[in-house]
Every structure is written in C-alpha cells, then in structure tokens.
Write a structure and sequence with these properties.
Elements lengths: L4 H35 L4 H34 L13
C-alpha cells in the first residue's frame, strides 16, 4: 500500500457518509419545502416536477454515498496487491 492510501481511504469513507447523510436529509426536507413552493403560485405540474427532481437528487446522493462506502470497505477488507505474488512473472 502506498503511504497516502490509508488517509485517502478514510477521506473517501467520510465523504461517502456525508453524501448518504445529505441524501437522507433531502428526503426529510422535501415535505417541509413543498408547501412553501406551492405558496409562490407555481402550477401543480411544476410542483410535481420539482418534487420528482428532489427525490431523484436524494436517491442519487444516497446511492452514490453508499457505493463509495461499499467500495472503500471492500477495498479495505481485500488483501493488498503488494502481498500477493506477481502472476505476470510466472
């Protein structure tokens, strides 16, 4: 392993957790924001489109963060490439 990999891995793990937390926060915030947007005089179609966009954004944030966390944990658990013998030379 390179010396910078453990700290980079930790940063990626933290970044993934932040993405998941923000995605979950989006889901909790949508019901609070939608009535405020409806008061601005937007049409029902526009409000529906905005609601769908917010939900898609939340799904992408949670999915991307979960993917990053799983990738980081999978890489952390797998043996490093330096411990395995080089198969190209055999």
């Amino acid at each position: 392993m390179k010396p910078s990999e453990p700290s980079n891995s930790r940063v990626q793990l933290i970044w993934g957790a932040i993405l998941v937390a923000v995605g979950v926060a989006v889901f909790f915030r949508i019901p609070q924001v939608m009535p405020q947007l409806a008061q601005m005089g937007q049409s029902a179609t526009t409000i529906g489109f905005i609601r769908i966009c917010f939900y898609i954004m939340g799904i992408l944030l949670v999915g991307g963060g979960a993917k990053k966390i799983i990738h980081c944990l999978h890489r952390h658990r797998s043996p490093s490439d330096t411990d395995a013998p080089d198969r190209d030379n055999n």
